[in-house]
């Protein structure tokens, strides 16, 4: 099976071109000179630019008793695997890169480590490891809880190398810790392939070549301290003390190339403090004296506990954070708010925890909690499809985004505002299409008029939603529609202003949030009979055994506004975040809960095309849930520590 890099559709191995979009499955264009290059080649033959899928190979070779001689691994033709998929790169294959085998440090009592670069000669095919793991989802879910590979027989069944265990154990820390691309055992050798991160700058390079603001330094140091805590349990602390192993990714987050096993005695926290003292002597700007003082205490062993180290960094971050005047900024209370109800039927408020408290409650677990965050990019995309079974599309979406980017000597700042709406219409003939269209247009016009500088309050948001309801309701009344002929629509809406987000919904369309820390979270509770019964204390199985369990308890249009009570919630974005607004054609049958890690999580990275990612999700949903219309709006918010100009 070949996965097209353009449209991500599946193709037979014999195909030279994608059967869906016509894209080549054998060649690609060089990004520098547009020369057509075989996918199996590492570099362009015309200009030498790297074009292939270059991977970082770790190999552990067990030593025979008493034999300490260096024995380079056997090759198959010029490949490291018997299937001849991964070709070893020679020293002249990559300009400015070192190829061939490199011996990593001294051998241990049991074995020796090698490093190499390889190119994937079949980059459009999923790796054998990926295929195997796709058949063992429960095993993947158990991995973070395992203390060793011997704790689960599936590890031995899959014949996975012990060398890969720390990477699987820490897979929730991706992209800081690289994912395992492929892994296998062969006789006395263990092979692990990782993504090659050498296109990213080393941390030490940035410190030496650029003027890094103090808050950014504290942010990176705090990330490293938290990572230190995770690596201590796996005896890989040495990984954070090697400058050539530490990178900064495209989102300005800490990342490492590989995990180095510790030797006795293991590194101490004082060594981390000393290492950072040494690194800061190389910075372009004079380091903050208070930060140097903390590092000296750590280096001298006066601060020996992770919790105290993090607490001191938090204090520094608070001292340097944005001016106090920002604290006086008017912003709605972070609570779910609903309109006063003058008539039946009433729908219980969402029982979801307060977003702001839930995200910020565990400061010790979030490296970004030390610092106030600012938006660095806002990306969005929207698509709709009538599905495979519906004759017409009653869904409608709208998105309006305003982004202002400013650049100066201190870097880039972004001011952004976005209005995002998804509606799923209902009613006889084409009435559903009309209702969803009317709701989206009414809400966009309302907020274009009523949302200027100040972020809308819950009352203003509710006013806009009720106006949309009145417009549809009045149309129903004028047309003398009744029963199923009355048109209506569900609603999910997100308003974004920099790192502030307000979400609102009526009906069973949903909003999901995806973060690296929190995974997938459903932010809305469906307004339907079954969910209402659960909130009133009924067992979920009993609640959804009712024949009317999926009947909506409220929607826009069928009734006047006293029967409409939108749920409204406010969020503060404290880490890179995806928000997905979708109709039930996407969310039905737990599609997102079962597939978010493969379909949504990768889209958090700036290197991923959000339009292509949403199209891929829509195509998958159409195969999985093609019984209904499908609509999705995807929003990606990237943040970093806020760096006030007065601390430069």
From TrEMBL:
InterPro entries: DZR, PP2C, PPM-type-like_dom_sf, PPM-type_phosphatase-like_dom. GO terms for molecular function: protein serine/threonine phosphatase activity. PROSITE patterns: PPM_2 (PS51746). SMART domains: PP2C_SIG, PP2Cc. Residues 379-637 form the PPM-type phosphatase domain. It comes from the Bacteria. NCBIfam families: PRK14559.1. PANTHER family: PROTEIN PHOSPHATASE 1L, PROTEIN PHOSPHATASE 2C. This is Serine/threonine phosphatase. It comes from Woronichinia naegeliana WA131.
């Amino acid at each position: 099976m070949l996965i097209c890099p353009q449209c991500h559709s599946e193709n037979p191995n014999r195909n030279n071109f994608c059967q869906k979009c016509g894209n080549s499955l054998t060649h690609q264009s060089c990004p520098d000179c547009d020369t057509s290059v075989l996918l199996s080649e590492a570099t362009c033959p015309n200009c030498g630019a790297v074009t292939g899928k270059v991977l970082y190979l770790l190999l552990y070779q067990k030593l025979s008793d008493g034999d300490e001689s260096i024995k380079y691994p056997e090759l198959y033709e010029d490949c490291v695997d018997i299937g001849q998929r991964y070709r070893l790169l020679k020293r002249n294959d990559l300009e400015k890169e070192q190829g061939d085998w490199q011996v990593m440090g001294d051998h241990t009592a049991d074995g020796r480590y090698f490093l190499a670069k390889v190119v994937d000669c079949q980059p459009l095919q999923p790796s054998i490891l990926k295929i195997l793991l796709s058949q063992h989802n429960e095993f993947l879910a158990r991995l973070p809880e395992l203390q060793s590979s011997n704790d689960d027989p599936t590890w031995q069944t899959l014949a996975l190398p012990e060398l890969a265990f720390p990477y699987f154990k820490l897979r929730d820390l991706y992209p800081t810790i690289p994912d395992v691309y492929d892994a296998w055992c062969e006789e006395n050798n263990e092979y692990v392939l990782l993504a090659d991160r050498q296109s990213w700058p080393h941390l030490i390079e940035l410190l030496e070549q650029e003027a890094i603001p103090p808050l950014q330094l504290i942010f990176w140091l705090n990330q490293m301290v938290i990572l230190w805590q995770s690596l201590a349990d796996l005896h890989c602390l040495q990984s954070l003390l090697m400058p050539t192993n530490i990178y900064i990714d495209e989102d300005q987050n800490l990342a490492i190339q590989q995990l180095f096993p510790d030797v006795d005695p293991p590194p101490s926290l004082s060594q981390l403090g000393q290492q950072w003292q040494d690194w800061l002597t190389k910075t372009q700007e004079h380091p903050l004296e208070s930060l140097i003082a903390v590092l000296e205490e750590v280096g001298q062993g006066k601060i020996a506990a992770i919790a105290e180290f993090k607490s001191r960094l938090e204090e520094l971050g608070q001292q340097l954070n944005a001016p106090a005047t920002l604290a006086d900024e008017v912003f709605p209370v972070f609570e779910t708010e609903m309109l006063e109800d003058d008539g039946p039927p009433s729908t219980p408020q969402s029982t979801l925890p307060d977003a702001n408290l839930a995200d910020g409650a565990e400061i010790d677990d979030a490296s970004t909690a030390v610092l106030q965050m600012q938006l660095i990019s806002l990306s969005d995309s929207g698509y709709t499809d009538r599905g495979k079974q519906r004759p017409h599309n009653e869904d409608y979406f709208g998105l309006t985004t305003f982004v202002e980017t400013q650049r100066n000597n201190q870097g880039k700042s972004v001011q952004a505002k976005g209005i995002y709406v998804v509606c799923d219409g209902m009613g006889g003939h084409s009435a559903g299409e009309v209702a969803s269209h009317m709701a989206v247009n009414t809400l966009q016009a309302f907020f274009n008029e009523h949302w200027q500088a100040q972020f809308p309050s819950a009352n203003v948001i509710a006013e806009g939603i009720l106006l949309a309801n009145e417009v549809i309701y009045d149309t129903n009344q004028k047309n003398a529609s009744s029963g199923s002929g009355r048109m209506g629509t569900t609603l999910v809406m997100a308003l974004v202003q920099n790192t502030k987000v307000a979400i609102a919904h009526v009906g069973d369309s949903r909003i999901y949030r995806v973060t690296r820390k929190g995974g997938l979270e459903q932010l809305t509770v469906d307004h339907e009979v079954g969910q209402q019964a659960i909130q009133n204390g009924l067992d979920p199985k009993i609640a959804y055994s009712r024949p009317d369990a999926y009947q909506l308890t409220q929607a826009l249009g069928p009734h006047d506004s006293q029967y409409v009570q939108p749920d409204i919630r406010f969020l503060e974005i404290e880490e890179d975040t995806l928000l997905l607004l979708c109709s039930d054609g996407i969310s039905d049958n737990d599609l997102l809960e079962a597939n978010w890690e493969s379909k949504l999580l990768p889209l958090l990275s700036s290197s991923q095309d959000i339009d292509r990612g949403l199209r891929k999700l829509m195509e998958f949903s159409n195969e999985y849930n093609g019984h209904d219309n499908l609509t999705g709006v995807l929003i990606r918010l990237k943040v970093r520590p806020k760096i006030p100009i007065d601390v430069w």
